[in-house]
Design brief:
Blueprint: E1 5-14, E2 17-27, E3 32-36, H1 43-50, E4 58-63, E5 66-67, H2 72-78, E6 79-82, H3 94-102, H4 109-119, H5 133-145, E7 151-155, H6 163-178, E8 182-186, H7 190-193, E9 199-204, E10 207-213, H8 214-219, E11 221-227, E12 241-248, E13 251-257, H9 261-269, E14 277-280, H10 284-297
Parallel strand pairs: 3-8, 3-9, 6-7, 7-8
Antiparallel strand pairs: 1-2, 1-4, 4-5, 9-10, 11-13, 11-14, 12-13
Length: 313
């Protein structure tokens, strides 16, 4: 089965700012893929290139089997897209913008839109200009979902929503994926995204450092917290792929992939004072924060796999 979207060696710069640096990955159909990273990581630029709203300096992208350079309009018709700051006609009411948008889609759009209006408890008579930020986001979500697209691309879609509606929306993405449709979700709500995503893409400084199933990423990652006798005592080498390391006085914290726990305990036992250490399986948010701290300390992103970022089959 063909991937829902593909990026091949995509790069994009704005003057001296390198927004994307040779990014390559693909997302199979039926996945909820979370795209994570700090502001400026290149997430929104990547989405705009996929939709044909920006042209890359190098590389190519495909969405639903169509080239983004040559079929941008058709891609935008077939994809449900919600940008971080959706543009809506201020003078229209909620009902009017649904009726207007229905003219661009096959029959059934307006009935589905009205169903989402009821689901989000929107007043169809209210003017867009009078809506709060959260309510405007609900209208934009209804418009992006009403034509039941094969691919949803959502750039911070829950910004401004109250916690309950945000959680209900994110959990509804699992139902979308269960129908064989694909969701590409860029969000800062890492802890809530972790509840629904089955695939994660992590970007730092325009570079791709992880494309992997969330289950595998968490299963193979450990956090080590160790307390040494003093700040000058050198810790033993950690047997695994160290993603991040931070020292706070005589305490050290590592984030490690594929840790050899038996060898770690053997090396640690050789310390004169038998310094204690603790292991635990980190959350997705803890992994991301550790990578961000490491990047800010030394801005050279390291892949979280042993070689190239993993392609999900």
């Amino acid at each position: 089965m063909s991937p829902a979207l593909t990026l091949k060696n995509v790069s994009k710069s704005f003057g001296r700012i390198h927004a994307l640096k040779n990014v390559s990955f693909e997302v199979p159909p039926g996945r909820v893929c979370a795209v994570l990273g700090a502001n400026g990581a290149g997430k929104s630029t990547m989405i705009r290139i996929l939709l044909g709203l920006e042209r890359p300096d190098a590389g190519e992208t495909q969405v639903l089997g169509m080239n983004s350079r040559t079929h941008g309009l058709e891609i935008r018709r077939r994809v449900g897209y919600m940008p971080e700051k959706p543009t809506l006609y201020e003078w229209m009411s909620v009902a009017e913008i649904g009726w207007f948008t229905a003219g661009f889609y096959p029959s059934g759009f307006q009935a589905a839109f009205e169903q989402y209006v009821r689901h989000f408890q929107l007043d169809p008579t209210q003017k867009i200009k009078n809506l709060s930020k959260g309510t405007r986001a609900k209208v934009a979500l209804a418009l992006s979902l009403a034509h039941k697209p094969d691919l949803l691309i959502l750039d911070e879609p829950t910004s401004g929503l109250d916690p309950l509606v945000r959680r209900e929306f994110l959990e509804s993405m699992v139902d979308v994926a269960a129908e064989g449709r694909t969701v590409l979700l860029s969000s800062h709500q890492v802890s809530e995204v972790e509840r629904v995503a089955d695939m994660v893409v992590i970007m730092l400084g325009g570079e791709l450092i992880c494309v992997e199933s969330l289950e595998d990423l968490k299963r193979t990652t450990r956090e080590i917290v160790a307390t040494l006798p003093d700040a000058t005592t050198a810790p033993p080498a950690v047997p695994g792929q160290v993603l991040a390391h931070a020292q706070f006085g005589h305490e050290h914290v590592w984030m490690v992939r594929n840790l050899d726990e038996a060898l770690l305990r053997e090396r640690w036992a050789m310390l004169a004072d038998g310094a204690p250490f603790q292991l635990h399986t980190p959350s997705l948010e803890e992994i991301l924060l550790a990578l961000l701290r490491e990047y800010r300390r030394s801005p050279a992103p390291r892949p979280t796999s042993s070689s190239e970022p993993v392609q999900i089959a």
